Each structure stands twice: as C-alpha cells, then as structure tokens.
Amino acid sequence: MKSALLYGHNDLRVEERPDPKAGEGQAVIRIHASGVCPSDIRSYTAATAAKRDPWTPGHEIAGVVTELGSGDTGDLQVGDRVAVDWRGVCGRCHQCVRGAANFCENLVKYPIAGFADATVMPVAQLTRLADGVSFEAASFAEPLACVVNAHRALPLPLAENVLVVGAGPIGLLHTQVARARGGRVIVTDMKADRLKAARELGAHDVAEVANQREAVLDLTDGRGADIVIVTVGIPAVIEAAFGLVAKNGAVNLFAGTHPKGAIALNPDVPHYDQVAINGSHDFIPNDFATALRLLRFGQVDVAPLISHRFPLAAVAEAFETTRQQRGLKSLVVAEGEK
Ligand SMILES: [Zn+2]
Ligand SMILES: [Zn+2]
C-alpha cells in the first residue's frame, strides 16, 4: 500500500509500505477520508521533526473494515463503514471513573497513521457509521468530539448569547453546536469569506474582528456575550475575549498557544464580574458518539467546511494548503465512495 511518511521539517513523502495485517482483536481499515489537522501541520513544520524516525501522521479518519483479526472482534464485520478514535482510554483509572476520560491516566495514543491507503486498529476504537453519514463527514468526528467536550461544560440556557471568536473549521463546528443547543450565535473573524460561511451554517450575526467589541456590545444590549468561545490560540485574541463577555458569563479557551504564550488578565473580571474561565481539551468516548449523532441527524453539517480534496499522492499539497490557511478544511480522500 501507499503511505505518507514525515521525514523531517516540511518533508512529507508518499512511499510503498507493507500492507497492514490484523492481529488479535484488530481490524484493518481501508481509509476513505483523512482530515488535515492543525496539529499535523505543527508536526510537519516543527524544527524538531527530523529528530525522530519517519512516521505517518493523520488521526481524523473514516473508512471500511477489510480484514478482522482473531479473537474477540465484537459484532464488527468486514465491509462495515467506521470512524476511528485514536484515544485508547482504560475506563478504570481515577479520571475515567470520574467521567474525565480525556485525562485517562493509562491513555494509549494509537498512531492511526491516517495518511495512507489503510491502517490497523483495535476494534474497540471503531464506531460503525449510520447510513447517510459519509466517510468525509465521519472524518470530522474527532475534532467535533473536542467541540462537544467543550460544550458539555458550558451552561447555555435557551437563546443566550454565544460569541464564537474565529470562523475556521473549529469555529464553524462550535457555531453549529451552539446553534443546535438553542444559543443566539455571534461569530467574529478577520476573513469575510469565513464570516459568510458562518452565516450559512447558522450564525445569527457576524462581525469583523476589527470592530468586534462595538459589534458585540451593540448586539447584546451593551452586556457582552454570556459565553465566549475562543478558537484562536493568539494571546492578544484571548485577552480581547475578556472584554466581550457579560457579567456572570463564561470564557472557553479552546485553542492552545503555539509557541506558548501568556496573557494579561485583569483579575477583577473573573472576580467582580463573576466570569468563569473554562478550558477544554480532547474528548471522552461519549463525545465521539455524540459527534457522530450530530452528523447523522444533520445538526452539524460539515460539507461546507471541506474546501479542498486531495488524493494521497498529493498529501504534501494538502499540508501546504492547510499551513497557508487556504480555504477551510483539506481532506485526503480515496477514489470511490465519499
Ligand atoms: Zn485533529
Ligand atoms: Zn483511564
């Protein structure tokens, strides 16, 4: 089979590799759709990329089971269409038991190696797709699960004001989940085409970042948004978010800072205005299941987020497209069923 291999800084090649074989409790999956994630780009551009052996990135995938190994493979069948969860959680540790499996103390990070024709995974990491959920849609289950994890911790009474800062692929997922939860959704971004996409995906109002403070105050009777979700990992953007939140509101920091950043926070905002600061990272297995249901029932539509499709042979171009922030989401797709 063909597989992408990251050799070092900005050096991604497609090479011939042995076909994967299913071991005990495992399945081989022929990959149909594989999303390029900003974390893939960080690996690709890292100066340290050359310091490890060549490896295959890609963790947002969906495909078809083509082989099952021996042992317990549940009710999975060859030919099943599946989404793949790279996070192997134990279900027994302190964090898993208290419902925070995103911090599983025995986490196995399965190297899905999704930019390839096929991969092998334990069957426990696979979820069968409902009819009507395409491979392309299912490849969004992982980032959407991260979004669901954030929302699980955010109070959102009906019709309260939610501000989503940043209308990239993640911001547009937040926009749709907030809308599905009954929020009144405002989205800000620098790019007009992204704001247009936000409107088409359910945002009630949009504003350019340059005048977002005036716009948000104007749209919220001078109070600010009850929930502010910051999808941009830039300290100045995060600082500005604290000027956009209402009293008794909450700010969710959804994006990490790369390189590591610091913000100046006026402690009187959380204190006198009783603003909650909430972060979120990764997801628990139920978030992954919820993400697939949101896709299945049409509460989240990812088709408009897919701006570029590349064959595996052009995976380096897919990475460059994402690195240069052209369009929204780039997918590497196989020929045949989408
Ligand atoms: Zn990802
Ligand atoms: Zn655990």
Automatic annotation (TrEMBL):
InterPro entries: ADH-like_C, ADH-like_N, ER, GroES-like_sf, NAD(P)-bd_dom_sf, Zn_alcohol_dh. Transmembrane segments: none annotated. The keyword Flavoprotein does not apply. Keywords: Metal-binding, Oxidoreductase, Zinc. Signal peptide: none annotated. One of its GO terms (molecular function) is oxidoreductase activity. Pfam families: ADH_N (PF08240), ADH_zinc_N (PF00107). Its cofactor is Zn(2+). Residues 8-332 form the Enoyl reductase (ER) domain. This is Alcohol dehydrogenase catalytic domain-containing protein. It comes from Herbidospora solisilvae. The lineage of its organism: Bacteria, Bacillati, Actinomycetota, Actinomycetes, Streptosporangiales.
